[in-house]
Every structure is written in C-alpha cells, then in structure tokens.
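Hey L., structure's done. Input below.
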Amino acid sequence: MLNGVGLPVMPSPTHIVPVLVGEPEKCKKASDLMLAEHGIYIQPINYPTVPKGMERLRITPTPYHEDALIDALAEALLEVWGRLALPLKDRALAAE
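Output:
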C-alpha cells in the first residue's frame, strides 16, 4: 500500500516497514505531526542508530492493523510528506 502511493519504503527482511526520510529534523517533525495531527505514533530513527542521510520512520504493523487503518496511515503519511516537502518515489516505480 505505501509503495503504491509513492512513499519511499525501504526493503526489509522483517515485519518492520522503514520509510526513508533522509533528514534528521524532518524525520522528527514527521513523527511529531503523525502523532499530534493523526493520532498515529511512528518512531523516528536518526543517527547514530542509522547513518547520516538514512534517517527513517519505523512502522511496525501487526495482524490487528486492518485495511482501513493502513489506508488511513497512507493518507496521513502523504499529507505529512507534502507538508514537509519530502520527495515521493515515481509512481511507476512504486507500483513494481
């Protein structure tokens, strides 16, 4: 779902879904906005946990997250992405 709307989802061999932000201040701000305005907590991961320039949001879905919740998450992330002027993937590439 998140790839399909163009969010920069990073590959992961686990159930954790990392979404690349690439800037520490915007990563923290995105996390803050998601909680304050959408009621969704997503952990920001910044240096030194990840290399500089690889800052990301860490999404941890569970089997209890229904399709409607995932749709709401995608909409909220797109709103925050636009507000912070973060780049999206090309939708043709995202659909692959």
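The first helix runs from residue 24 to 38. Residues 7 and 78 are 8 Å apart (CA to CA).

-- N.
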